[in-house]
Specification:
Elements (H helix, E strand, L loop, with lengths): L7 H18 L4 H8 L3 H8 L5 H10 L5 H5 L7 H6 L29
Helix pairs in contact: 2-3, 2-4
Length: about 120
């Protein structure tokens, strides 16, 4: 399934539905999952409706034995060989000033003639 054409809300609803399917596949009630994950039933209901916090999501994924899905969800980008060479083997610790959204400076061209 491609998420590219979906709104943020639609994606959250799909993820919530998948959480619910995993819970039902394991034959666990919302109350049982909440107790095992150390959360409230309303938090479980919220996650299944596409609302919630990341720490709650992690607790539920842990209880449903789905933590491995996080690596597929957001894999470690690692460093490219070029980045390693530029940083002399040191990992990047912060973003550059202005971030990636900043456009590179444009070059000023001198006219070749005065006419």
């Amino acid at each position: 399934m491609s998420f590219l054409g979906k709104s943020d809300r639609q994606i959250l609803q799909i993820l919530g539905k998948r959480l619910r399917q995993h819970r039902l596949h394991r034959d666990i009630t919302q109350a049982q999952l909440a107790q095992r994950a150390g959360l409230s039933v309303s938090t479980i209901k919220g996650l299944e409706a596409g609302r919630g916090r990341l720490d709650s999501l992690i607790a539920v994924l842990r209880e449903l034995q789905q933590l491995d899905a996080l690596d597929a969800f957001l894999p470690d980008p690692g460093l490219s060989p070029l980045q390693l060479a530029e940083r002399q083997g040191r990992p990047r610790r912060r973003a550059s000033r202005g971030g990636a959204a900043q456009e590179p400076p444009t070059k000023k061209h001198k006219p070749e003639s005065d006419w």
